[in-house]
Specification:
Number of strands of chain B: 9
Structural class of chain A: alpha+beta
Strand content of chain A: 15-25%
Radius of gyration of chain B: 21 Å
Distance between the termini of chain B: 44 Å
Number of helices of chain A: 17
CATH class of the largest domain in chain B: Alpha Beta
Distance between the termini of chain A: 27 Å
Strand order of the largest sheet of chain B: 1-3-2-4-5
Helix content of chain A: 25-40%
Strand order of the largest sheet of chain A: 15-12-14-13-17-18-16
CATH architecture of the largest domain in chain B: 3-Layer(aba) Sandwich
CATH class of the largest domain in chain A: Alpha Beta
Strand content of chain B: 5-15%
Oligomer: heterodimer
Number of helices of chain B: 24
Number of domains of chain A: 5
Largest sheet of chain A: 7 strands, antiparallel
Shape of chain A: globular
Chain lengths: 468, 419
């Protein structure tokens, strides 16, 4: 526990009700979706950038680590209080400050839940495309800090492609703004892009300026079953080669289909070894043409069946197949390591073959699905943590999967970030010189290593504990 | 003897929570106050900490565990389908066992466990309007789910009837021999607050020629006691109801209260082998009516010229069982009704057993959202299938100064049927 005087100082800044000290309350902020847990010494719910700045000044003075947190739904431990200290929750700052229809720009606070924001802009005919699977509960602040992706990124790009300005509290407790509401701006370094995906290590986001698009008039969904994963992968390349960029291009491999077939009564014939869910959006009259064109292009590639939704309900029914994946995986094994490697699109079939070989090597089931359209594959290594040896096998398999992705010119993480989960593997992808370049930025901005320490890059003292 | 599961028995269920946070998008209690202890993921972490001995039953733990409507919305939206409502109920029972029932819990346990006392209380309160109801002395016990110390200022409640439903009707009402026999489990809401719903139930079944048995010695289903964590009360009520029901021959046990349906059909089913046969026969009234040809008969009636706009609220205890189509099917078939769907029809009304007693301020926030959704549908009436929801929906509408009325679908049905 922190000394009483510090708690009192924090209460003075935030008000008593926003300083949580009981063990029960701290337990509730000790975890995220990695299922790891570290007990913080105090949980804070600030309501403004000014309050956060005061907290950071105090934390620097007293050398208390600060761990920023949105909804706590990350997959790599970005928000975990690995060294105790302060969990700083931005959820109370949840106002949509402005939706500027003349400039197609919105300004929000970090605690706004992504879906709520999307609905608000869609009401006035505007569109914020990034759609991480957690969009119903994750916050925009968290999305920016992790640079979240999602299925629609194939066509529209990821979170950072929509963030044009930020207000940020620096690790030492100053408030700065970066970028702004203009579509162009080249004065100084592009700190906005640096902060997007910095995983809360370089600053705490307190305000976000977001670029919006006009809402597409309509969308159309199709589901295609293939007799081989190669067919599906070739289909992805063929669609891209023919200069068509669908909104989403999701795939599921044979093992995934098997899981869904066993867990649900959804109609998936046994001959199907891969599934693509393809969605296009735009002007209504243009969609049928595009869908038909796609069907034509992929026809020779071992298509078992093509289903095209004609109504909203039918579209939902097609997406239901994709949505039931996560829960159905439990039938394979109770626990999973969900890695989100990304390779150049054309390398997807090769990557899948490599993953299959790794699965055979370690004798451990690996299920692949994800965003084929941008080469971002969710590699799910299925284990039973209670079976001795399973975790060791999984660790070996994870490392091999990362190496395979890197060999193909890819990356270890397309969406989830590094946090603590992937920190031990950083040297596989980032050279010592490049890593030092990054660390130099961190050191100069956060000389006391107060803000989210030990994330992305392991520091020596806790490399042992999260090296596992 | 009925036996409820312990918190310890839910270890596997607790472990199935992967802390993804999806419950945050679905929990009405969390929506009313966005603190992690309010949401399923936090409660599961706390339940686990209790089992592991990491936290005692300190005030903050009790407060968070009391902040649950047991509505099951989180489970519906959970990728791993973790039944947080069962875990919380088990945790509350453990708390009650270790700490004794809270003042409120005791009040419920005493009154619900003794139907005679309940009848007496109902009679003495029959002439009271809802305003007078609030002025009752603290110790009257009449308040049942709303004992005076917790009866927050400003809550509007229906009056308690002078003559409970089950005292108004014979125990057996014979119908056609070729039709099935139904045992009507009326529940407390209908018996003491909404006897007209019970009468509408009988009219509907008479219309189909169904024989109805209304056992005189049936007791409360025990759901408010589940919410309060009163293990013994629940187990005793279950035994009592089993005895009351076993004396009769019937095809179905039919309920017109979502909570009773869930209590008898789901909770009893887990309490011992002797309940399995009984629980399997439990059926909601609209499922029964839909399966026995009522929608077709209603469709044949001439449509009214001036129809009234009605929307439907899904009670949690039906929605969780996937019963969403049949009540709408009946409503849509009614000649005097123009059905309109409201946004988020499936979110909890905010009553949640003891939740609204401890947390009326939060209940009001949940209810205000619901009242807004009802108003936006343009409906004049909001119909549902649960007396608890009716009471809560009406309170929410009253606070929002709405003009809509909450009622049971059976009341509309009875109106449409020939005398």
């Amino acid at each position: 526990m922190l000394p009483e005087q510090i708690i009192k100082d924090l209460q003075k800044i935030l008000g008593k009700e926003n300083v949580l000290t009981s063990k029960a309350e701290r337990i509730c902020y000790s975890y995220d979706a990695t299922q790891q847990s570290f007990l913080p010494e105090v949980v804070l719910h600030p309501g403004s950038a000014e309050e956060i700045a005061l907290i950071m000044k105090l934390a620097n003075r007293e050398r208390i680590p600060v761990f920023p947190r949105g909804a706590g739904s990350g997959f790599t431990g970005g928000s975990l209080p690995t060294k105790g200290g302060i969990v700083l929750c931005t959820e109370r700052m949840d106002q949509i400050l402005e939706i500027d229809e003349e400039n197609l720009v919105a300004t929000v606070e970090p605690g706004v839940v992504t879906e709520r924001f999307q609905k608000a802009v869609e009401k006035v005919g505007l569109f914020y495309p990034p759609d991480p699977a957690s969009l119903k509960f994750s916050t925009l602040g968290g999305n920016v800090a992790e640079c979240a992706g999602g299925p629609r990124c194939v066509k529209y790009g990821v979170t950072k492609d929509f963030i044009i300005g930020l207000e940020v509290v620096t690790p030492t407790g100053d408030v700065i703004t970066t970028g702004g509401p203009t579509m162009k701006g080249v004065v100084g370094y592009d700190l906005t892009k640096l902060l997007c995906g910095s995983e809360g290590t370089l600053g705490i986001i307190t305000r976000i300026v977001i670029k919006l698009l006009p809402l597409p008039e309509a969308k159309k969904t199709m589901l295609v079953l293939f007799d081989s994963i190669d067919g599906a992968a070739q289909a992805v390349s063929a669609i891209t080669r023919n200069k068509i960029v669908p909104t989403t291009l999701e795939f599921m491999d044979g093992r995934t289909i098997e899981c869904v077939r066993q867990a649900t009564d959804l109609d998936l014939p046994e001959t199907a070894q891969a599934v693509l869910i393809i969605e296009v959006d735009g002007d209504r009259e243009f969609l049928d043409k595009q869908v038909n064109r796609i069907a034509e292009i992929i026809k020779p590639l071992g298509v078992v069946e093509t289903r095209i939704a004609t109504t909203q309900e039918e579209s939902e029914a097609l997406w239901q197949i994709r949505r039931s994946v996560s829960a159905s995986l439990r039938n394979v094994n109770p626990d999973k390591f969900n890695e989100d490697i990304c390779v150049p699109r054309s390398k997807v079939p090769e990557m899948i073959r490599k993953v299959d070989a790794i699965s055979d090597k370690y004798q451990i089931p690996i299920v692949n699905f994800g965003h084929a359209g941008d080469g971002n594959i969710h590699v799910n290594i299925m284990v039973n943590k209670k079976v001795s040896g399973d975790i060791m096998k999984a660790e070996g398999a994870i490392k091999d999967v990362f190496k395979a992705a890197l060999e193909l010119g890819g990356t270890m993480s397309g969406e989830h970030g590094v946090g603590i989960a992937k920190a031990p593997y950083i040297p596989l992808e980032i050279t010592p010189v490049a890593a030092e370049y990054m660390k130099a930025i961190k050191r100069s901005l956060d000389p006391n290593n107060i803000l989210n320490p030990g994330k992305i890059f392991l520091d020596d003292e806790n490399s042992a504990e999260c090296g596992d | 003897m009925a036996k409820l599961k312990k918190l310890e028995d839910y270890r596997d269920e607790i472990e199935r929570c992967v802390k993804c946070g999806a419950c945050r998008a679905h929990c009405p209690a969390f929506d009313a106050e966005r603190r992690e202890g309010r949401v399923a993921r936090g409660k599961i972490a706390l339940a686990n900490s209790i089992l592991e001995g990491e936290v005692g039953l300190e005030p903050k733990v009790l407060e968070d565990l009391s902040q649950c409507l047991l509505c099951g919305s989180c489970c519906a939206g959970c990728p791993n389908k973790v039944h947080t409502e069962d875990i919380v109920a088990a945790a509350r029972r453990q708390i009650a066992e270790e700490r004794g029932l809270s003042t409120f819990g005791k009040g419920v346990a005493t009154v619900l466990g003794r139907p005679k006392l309940m009848n007496l209380l109902a009679k003495s309160g029959g002439s009271l309007s809802s305003i007078l109801f609030k002025k009752l002395p603290k110790d009257s016990g009449l308040h049942l789910r709303f004992p005076a110390p917790y009866l927050e200022k400003g809550r509007t409640l229906p009056p308690i009837t002078a003559k409970p439903f089950r005292e108004r009707v014979p125990e057996v009402i014979p119908g056609d021999a070729q039709q099935p026999t139904v045992l009507f489990f009326s529940g407390c809401g209908i018996n003491y607050m909404y006897p007209e719903v019970g009468e509408a139930f009988l009219k509907a079944l008479k219309f189909l020629g169904v024989t109805v048995i209304i056992p005189k010695d049936q007791a409360c289903c025990g759901l408010p006691a589940v919410s309060a964590g009163a293990t013994k009360t629940i187990e005793n009520l279950a035994d009592q109801n089993l005895a009351a029901i076993n004396g009769h021959t019937f095809d179905y046990i039919v309920t017109a209260c979502a909570s009773c349906n869930s209590g008898l059909g789901n909770i009893y089913a887990e309490m011992g082998d002797e309940f399995k046969e009984m629980s399997a026969k439990v059926m909601d009234i609209f499922v029964f009516l839909a399966r026995h040809g009522l929608p077709e008969k209603l469709e044949a009636l001439p449509k009214a010229e001036q129809r009234i706009k009605v929307t439907y609220h899904d009670p949690c205890h039906l929605r969780n069982q996937g019963i969403t189509k049949e009540p709408r099917q009946i409503l849509k078939a009614l000649p005097q009704v123009e059905f309109v769907e409201m946004p988020d029809a499936g979110t909890c009304c905010g009553l949640g057993g003891t939740y609204s007693v401890y947390h009326y301020e939060h209940t009001k926030r949940i209810a205000a959202r619901k009242a807004g959704n009802i108003a936006s549908s343009g409906a004049e009436l909001v119909a549902t299938d649960c007396p608890g929801c009716i009471m809560q929906l009406q309170d929410g509408i009253n606070h929002a100064e709405g003009t809509q009325r909450a009622l049971h679908i059976l009341e509309l049905l009875a109106e449409a049927l020939p005398e």
